[in-house]
Design goal:
The structure is a homodimer.
Chain A: E1 4-7, E2 13-14, E3 17-18, H1 20-33, E4 37-40, H2 52-65, E5 71-74, H3 80-92, E6 97-100, H4 110-121, E7 128-131, H5 134-137, H6 143-150, E8 155-160, H7 167-178, E9 186-189, H8 195-200, E10 205-208, H9 215-226, H10 230-239, H11 241-250, H12 252-262, H13 280-292
Parallel strand pairs in A: 1-4, 1-10, 4-5, 5-6, 6-7, 7-8, 8-9, 9-10
Antiparallel strand pairs in A: 2-3
Chain lengths: 296, 296
């Protein structure tokens, strides 16, 4: 479950609801590409924008259409009571694991975040992945807190923010965390431009936005890193540099949703308002980047 | 509506739901103190943590128990579709105005935020207050964007973050914004420690957390500033310095919820988990601060 490529697909939607046929097509695309796991209802899957019933339905569709690929389901919400309900729903839908970010409106304290994971893990029968994403949660985990939470039952993985592009710094960061968590806990990297660097630095897996739409391009990077071909993994990632530049400028979600629209894999709009996919010159530029990279 | 003291009460709650009798007592306390308006379901009222039906019920209770005091109701949510539903509910409940923050999970662009206000104001029949709170929304309004949004129909107020403690800087900040918005749009200050400074700098009103639990203490500051007694307003605010220090350290919500618990105006717990009120030494310290300030 927590090794190799964890592909995070978009949940295509509009103001009327989730576009279920489009979502199923994306899941089938990932299953037939042979990704190692699927992360449904991650940030790229716009989990916080959906109602509980919609999230249950999306989790069910992901599991039903993923073939043998294990599916992890995002269960984050502002309130503990909602997280517990969503965890039950995800398990009922057949999720192989759940992903939990400490979503906040009021800035949370470390003790509150520990209390959240403590209460939720007590209710779980499937593995949990700690979702460390300060860009959306505005909570900064200390390594010490990661170490405490990683001792809780059912915790099996940590999804960390991008590692440094400096090889020694990246390796030191992963090793520092590794020393603080039980050996059963996998460490995976996110931030697509840091996928190759994270895997080369010793991460077990890559939680990938690009992998949710372009699984082959992401698998080339992952398989190279897994084979010990660090340079080749970096070369494959650097080839996608024009895409990473757009991710950094507009956010991965807007870029990947626009790409799905351009590929005809999702209708436009595919994002929950007020969020919009790219428009005008940015949209045209993305189209030519995809063409140059032979991703269309 | 948008002048003087706008008092923001807690919505006392626990994992089972909203403590409606406690909320009604808080509203009655504000109405009998003679605050100028009540901001129900603001950040202090934990609006994003409640379900739609709970928010409708809280809005109704606020309006029904506020006597002649006008009630503004928070309608923020991640999705435009939910904001529009909440706006309808608030109007149905009899709100005199609505308060809208650009709540985010994915960081929003200026165009997306403008689009949000444009779509919502089109559906409104009551005034709207723009809620500029980068600490919780992680969106930074430019003055230019405020100016554009302020032109939209129904926009009648802006709730700005704390002004500088430097008198000239505070006045310059309010005047810069004032020049960009129509004269029908009131400018109010938040951040309780900046209440007196904001009013003295020319703000029309103070959106106050402390005023939601200790209306008399807040009214003393407001009435002094309104009478042109700038020094007296500052003196009254500085007297509450030990409370402002706690607000800065623990967040206004945790401090005021703990104070309500200590006063017996709310049961413990009164906040939505994972958020907790103060514990241990911090709780004891708050108790002695309240006693010293003769607020108990």
């Amino acid at each position: 479950m927590f090794s190799g490529l964890s592909a995070f697909p978009l949940t295509p939607m509009n103001e009327a609801g989730v576009d279920e046929p489009a979502f199923v097509r994306l899941i089938e695309r990932l299953a037939s590409a042979g990704v190692d796991s699927i992360g449904a209802l991650g940030s790229t899957g716009s989990y916080p924008y959906l109602a509980r019933a919609e999230r249950l339905r999306v989790a069910q569709l992901a599991v039903e259409n993923a073939g043998n690929v294990p599916v992890m389901v995002g269960i984050g919400a502002l309130r503990l009571r909602d997280v517990i309900d969503l965890a039950q729903d995800a398990q009922k839908a057949g999720a192989s694991a759940v992903l939990l970010a400490p979503v906040s409106y009021q800035k949370l304290t470390a003790e509150e975040v520990f209390g959240l994971y403590e209460a939720v893990t007590r209710t779980l029968s499937v593995p949990l992945c700690i979702y460390d994403n300060p860009g959306t949660t505005h909570f900064e985990f200390s390594d010490e807190l990661h170490g405490r939470i990683a001792q809780l039952p059912q915790v099996r993985a940590i999804k960390i923010p991008p590692v440094s592009a400096d090889r020694d710094a990246a390796r030191a960061r992963v090793e520092r965390l590794r020393a603080l968590v039980p050996s059963r806990v996998a460490i995976g990297v996110s931030g697509d431009w840091a996928g190759a660097d994270g895997l080369n630095a010793g991460c077990d897996n890559w939680y990938s936005v690009v992998g949710g739409l372009f699984p082959q391009a992401a698998l080339h990077i992952v398989r190279a890193a897994q084979a010990g071909e660090a340079q080749e993994a970096v070369r494959r990632s650097e080839r996608l540099q024009p895409l990473w530049a757009l991710f950094r400028q507009y956010g991965g979600l807007r870029v990947i949703a626009t790409a799905a629209e351009l590929l005809g894999l999702a209708d436009r709009p595919s994002l929950p308002l007020p969020i919009r996919s790219l428009d005008g010159a940015a949209r045209v530029h993305l189209g030519s980047v995809l063409a140059e990279l032979k991703l269309v």
